[in-house]
Write a structure and sequence with these properties.
- The chain has 277 residues and is α/β, with parallel strands linked by helices.
- The protein is 45% helix and 20% strand.
- The chain has 11 helices and 10 strands.
- Helix 11 links the parallel strand 7 and strand 8.
- The termini are far apart.
- The structure holds S-adenosylmethionine.
- The site of S-adenosylmethionine has 20 residues, from loops.
Length: 277
């Protein structure tokens, strides 16, 4: 029986080499994905590109950024959801929000600013807004703004509507769903108006200067995969400038912060960092 090209080429060692290359040169750590899942997806790309070896495939990724995007699409990385990685959101509430609110109370400041810097269709900034609203529910003197941006205008248009099909909300805690989402019919919900009003959407490309300053928290999750190392460094420098002293940066769970001189890890497993100084 003829094996499809990719099937014959990929052994355990070849997969390891490809994944090491992607971690080293693209900064994407795929170690939390199942090996069998990764092997299946890599084989599809090996077949599609008709390369003759795993080494040749790493060279192709190096030469053609669009192949890396196709590889990521194959992994379905270009997706989002409410409270994606719930353990990250728990740590965000318990560690980050409580610290920021405590410090604001001590200093007399009463406004909170969060930037969701690759917000896609809005699930991330609305999740943040819900947790912030919960954390501030007994503190009427506080105000909070969730600034949300993305390079994809279509995604932003959908985000601003704040409407989602029920099938995409199945993983949300039923209490949260009941409290913060208004049913629009049997299979569609809209985010509650006061939560929508906390979020402001605008177009922004992460390759340009951050459009905001004096931020308490920046979310930059599951977008570093689109950037090379030099671009990511520029991005972190910009984030560092845009954050207030002691501000926090939250990355995607499979992403790596190479720059060790600007941020300290607060919860390295959840990829939560704090601005130094
Ligand atoms: C996988 S989604 C991540 C959404 C959300 N942060 C999350 O973690 O669920 C990646 C998003 O990054 C956006 N993106 C890609 N390159 C960008 C850039 N240069 N500037 C701003 N957004 C970008 C895409 O349009 C997409 O909406």
């Amino acid at each position: 029986m003829d094996l499809p090209n990719g099937q014959a080429l990929l052994d355990e060692n070849g997969l390891k080499k490809i994944l090491e290359f992607i971690r080293e040169y693209k900064g994407v750590d795929l170690s939390s994905y199942r090996q069998s899942f990764l092997a299946r997806r890599v084989r599809i790309r090996l077949s599609a590109t008709k390369v003759k070896s795993c080494l040749e495939y790493t060279r192709l990724i190096e030469k053609k950024p669009e192949e890396f995007n196709l590889f990521l699409n194959e992994l379905s990385i270009n997706v989002t959801e409410f409270f994606r990685d719930p353990d990250v959101y728990s740590a965000f509430g318990n560690i980050v929000l409580s610290d920021i609110i405590r410090r604001k109370e001590a200093s007399g400041a009463r406004s909170l600013r969060v930037w969701s810097s690759a917000c896609a269709t809005g699930e991330e900034p609305y999740s943040i807004a819900i947790l912030v609203a919960e954390a501030l529910k007994d503190k009427p003197d506080f105000t909070a703004k969730i600034l949300a941006s993305d390079v994809d205008a279509q995604a932003l248009e959908a985000a601003a509507k704040g409407e989602y099909e029920a099938k995409f909300l199945q993983k949300i805690d039923p209490e949260i769903l009941k409290k913060f989402f208004i049913p629009l019919g049997p299979a569609r919900y809209r985010v509650r108006e006061d939560i929508r009003k906390m979020v402001r959407f605008q177009a922004h490309n992460l390759f340009s200067e951050p459009p905001f300053k004096y931020l308490d928290i920046i979310f930059c999750r599951n977008v570093l995969i689109y950037l090379n190392r030099a671009q990511a460094k520029e991005l972190f420098i910009g984030f560092n400038r845009a954050l207030s002293p002691g501000g926090y940066l939250v990355l995607g769970k499979v992403e790596t912060l190479w720059e060790r001189d600007m941020f300290v890890p607060v919860d390295p497993r959840m990829k939560i960092y704090q601005k130094l100084g």
